[in-house]
Design brief:
Pfam families: LRR_6 (PF13516). The chain is α/β, with parallel strands linked by helices. The protein has a domain of 231 residues: Leucine-rich repeat, LRR (right-handed beta-alpha superhelix), CATH 3.80.10. The protein contains 17 helices and 15 strands. Helix 9 links the parallel strand 6 and strand 7. The protein starts with 10 loop residues before the first helix and ends in a 15-residue tail after the last strand.
């Protein structure tokens, strides 16, 4: 891989690249030129001309570089002629938005190209002025494995302009090669479509769903398998509309990313939903570390009975009245829509203001989602009540026909309010492979009564308890329990951000002792609890 730093007197370096491209050097398969490495327009023309006739380069990255008119000409010619390049990242942050004519030519060439599988146009100020060009990317007969349009300026009006101009007319494609169209699949593949961090709201989602659901006249539905809409102002209405997409037989979605979508048009979080508990809910977490308060137990029984009833009725009845009417009803509808999916394996609802009051409705979907494997609910204000309900769902008796088993095996509840009581319940889930409880309230200080009979997490191989204010004594107890056979399948234990600077020696001693008894368990713990916490990873 050549990252490129030509600098002064760069001719010889570019000469080397061109020479290797022209002789089809089999070892020269990836070229990424970082944005702060500057090439002249003449250098780019030479590179693109060489790539046009090359058959070995698979990845080209020159994002962040302004392309002069003559460079755009060379790029278009390259895209029309080269059909072996697979990955392309191009464009300066402001160029395509300010030069729609140039982008239109590039989009037509991309439509005609028969080799590219991944296109990255993140943060290129694409918006309304580019709508006519963007339809070429969405209508490309060969589709895409990855199409990244995140961090742009796409809004509802832009999507409307795109979809009202589909399908493409013969005149639209008259300047493009028909090679790509001749072998077009019945359903154009669009593996990963990333529209995150734009300005799409409920109206835009409705248009998007018409396209994905095959409801646009004369337009084949794209086989989108991964849809990323995080950081868009979808709000509750948009999420509900999107989940109804599973009503359509054409939907083959396997992953749905919706983090940070319950926001207003202005990007300000909406007021938190009414978190009034379900009748019988008691949200006081002052019980001992591993025992459910009677009021919580009664509430959970009520909720799970509602779920069982819905499973028996095929989700035709309504138990919405068992939940706070406004917020939980939304998640009930979303859960019902999820029930219809036979393909969805990953659902990300990070920072969507779910709350305990919405978990009951969502669980009605989970109870029937036999394909769902990964669920992420970071920073949703969830307490032990939600943990207890999830545990009930994931530990259901397989002989109980009222409550279908959920196949969930990866659960992320980071940045919520789970305590040792909820943690103990989650360790009774036999099919969980990964459990992430980063930055919760699992303040282990000693034995948990909820684990008096051990655990049932026979397949749990990764556990993250980072940043939970675990004390040295609590860590000692937990490692002793692991050494005695608790979580016998565990391979990775993440507990960074718990040990303060003056506790390092004590923690190190405990880790070494655990390693002696369980050498197959890898412990990651050395990030200082006094250090600044990392920025949560965005998806």
């Amino acid at each position: 891989m050549a990252w490129g730093n030509p600098g002064p007197g760069s001719g010889s370096v570019v000469d080397t690249w061109v020479e290797r491209l022209e002789r089809n050097d089999a070892t020269f398969c990836s070229l990424h030129i970082l944005s702060f490495r500057r090439l002249s327009a003449a250098d780019f023309v030479r590179l693109f001309t060489a790539i046009a006739n090359n058959a070995t380069l698979k990845e080209l990255g020159c994002s962040g570089h302004t392309l002069e008119p003559e460079v755009v000409d060379a790029l278009v010619a390259m895209l029309v002629q080269n059909h072996t390049l697979r990955v392309l990242k191009i464009g300066h942050a402001e160029q395509f938005g300010q030069a729609p004519e140039a982008f239109h030519r590039v989009a037509q060439a991309l439509y005609a190209n028969a080799g590219l599988r991944e296109l990255d146009l993140e943060f290129k100020t694409l918006g309304m002025s580019n709508a006519s060009a963007l339809r070429y990317l969405l209508a490309r007969p060969l589709g895409w494995d990855v199409l990244n349009l995140s961090r742009n300026q796409l809004n509802d009006a832009c999507l409307d302009a795109i979809f009202t101009q589909l399908p493409l007319t013969p005149n639209d494609i008259s300047t493009a090669s028909t090679n790509a169209a001749s072998d077009a699949p019945t359903l154009p593949g669009l593996g990963i479509l990333d529209l995150g961090d734009n300005a799409i709201s409920a109206q835009g989602v409705s248009l998007l769903c018409r396209w994905l659901g095959g409801q646009l006249p004369g337009v084949l539905p794209p086989a989108v398998r991964v849809l990323k809409l995080s950081y868009n102002p979808l709000r509750a209405e948009g999420i509900d509309t999107l989940c109804r997409l599973f009503d359509h037989a054409h939907t083959v979605l396997e992953e749905l990313w919706l983090s940070d979508t319950i926001i207003t048009q202005e990007g300000v979080p909406v007021p938190e939903p009414d978190d009034s508990p379900t009748p019988g809910f008691h949200t006081d977490n002052s019980t001992d570390s591993g025992r459910t308060a009677p009021s919580q137990e009664q509430a959970i029984q009520t909720i799970m009975q509602n779920i069982s009833t819905q499973a028996q009725q095929g989700s035709t009845g309504s138990s919405v009245s068992a939940f706070p009417p406004s917020h939980a009803a939304l998640w009930y509808d979303i859960g019902r829509s999820l029930n219809k999916s036979r393909t969805l394996t990953l659902l990300n609802l990070d920072r969507c203001l779910l709350k305990d009051s919405g978990m009951g409705g969502l669980l009605q979907g989970l109870a029937g989602s036999l394909q769902l494997k990964t669920l992420s609910l970071r920073d949703n204000g969830l307490s032990d009540i939600s943990a207890h309900m999830l545990s009930r769902l994931l530990t259901a008796d397989p002989t109980d026909a009222r409550l279908p088993l959920c196949q969930l095996d990866r659960l992320d509840l980071s940045e919520n309010h789970i305590t040792p009581a909820g943690f103990a319940d989650l360790l009774q889930c036999p099919q969980l492979h990964e459990l992430v409880l980063y930055a919760n309230r699992v303040h282990l200080g000693g034995p948990m009564s909820g684990l008096g009979n051990g655990d049932s997490a026979d397949h749990l191989h990764r556990l993250d308890l980072s940043c939970n204010d675990i004390t040295p004594a609590g860590f000692q107890w937990f490692c002793d329990a692991l050494g005695a056979g608790l979580l016998h399948a565990l391979k990775t234990l993440e507990v960074a951000g718990n040990a303060s600077h003056d506790e390092m020696d004590a923690w190190d001693t405990v880790v070494q002792a655990l390693h002696t008894k369980r050498p197959d368990v890898h412990v990651f713990w050395k990030r200082d609890a006094n250090a600044i916490p990392p920025t949560p990873q965005q998806s």
